[in-house]
Amino acid sequence: MILFQGWRAIWPSVLYPHLNNKTPLYFPRLPHPSLISSLHRRPLPGLPVLFKQWLKNEEVEEGRTAVLRCELTRPHARLEWRKGDVVLQPGDKYEIRQEGTRAELLIYEAGAQDAGEYTCDSGDQQTTASLQVKGRTRLGWG
């Protein structure tokens, strides 16, 4: 990671008017502020991505949206969501959200086929939870 870009000479009279100008002072030349702000968003290599909050078992009514949530130790980490051994892809059925260290899997219009074990895998650690889908209670005559 680049912490500074070379050295920059500043004549002492700029900072200390009472000194002579014969010996310059050297300070590190820092990258442009926009580069510094983007550096802190990148994952640091070598640090593991662990879970601060694990997935919890959830129960959802049939036809509703189920949400599985977890929280990581590092923002913007690459994650893989699975149901059993099947890797999930975003689409009409699944939405994968990730904001900072929080990650969510949304399962739209949950049905009996959506019940099962779901895993979020960071590559360094994984967490698994069970989703149960309850049938709708129908009220009415006949």
UniProtKB/TrEMBL annotation:
<dbReference type="InterPro" id="IPR036179">
    <property type="entry name" value="Ig-like_dom_sf"/>
</dbReference>
<keyword id="KW-0597">Phosphoprotein</keyword>
<dbReference type="Pfam" id="PF07679">
    <property type="entry name" value="I-set"/>
</dbReference>
<protein>
    <recommendedName>
        <fullName>Ig-like domain-containing protein</fullName>
    </recommendedName>
</protein>
<dbReference type="InterPro" id="IPR013098">
    <property type="entry name" value="Ig_I-set"/>
</dbReference>
<dbReference type="InterPro" id="IPR007110">
    <property type="entry name" value="Ig-like_dom"/>
</dbReference>
<dbReference type="GO" id="GO:0005737">
    <property type="term" value="C:cytoplasm"/>
</dbReference>
<dbReference type="InterPro" id="IPR003599">
    <property type="entry name" value="Ig_sub"/>
</dbReference>
<dbReference type="InterPro" id="IPR003598">
    <property type="entry name" value="Ig_sub2"/>
</dbReference>
<feature type="domain" description="Ig-like">
    <location>
        <begin position="45"/>
        <end position="132"/>
    </location>
</feature>
<dbReference type="InterPro" id="IPR052385">
    <property type="entry name" value="Obscurin/Obscurin-like_Reg"/>
</dbReference>
<keyword id="KW-0963">Cytoplasm</keyword>
<keyword id="KW-1015">Disulfide bond</keyword>
<dbReference type="InterPro" id="IPR013783">
    <property type="entry name" value="Ig-like_fold"/>
</dbReference>
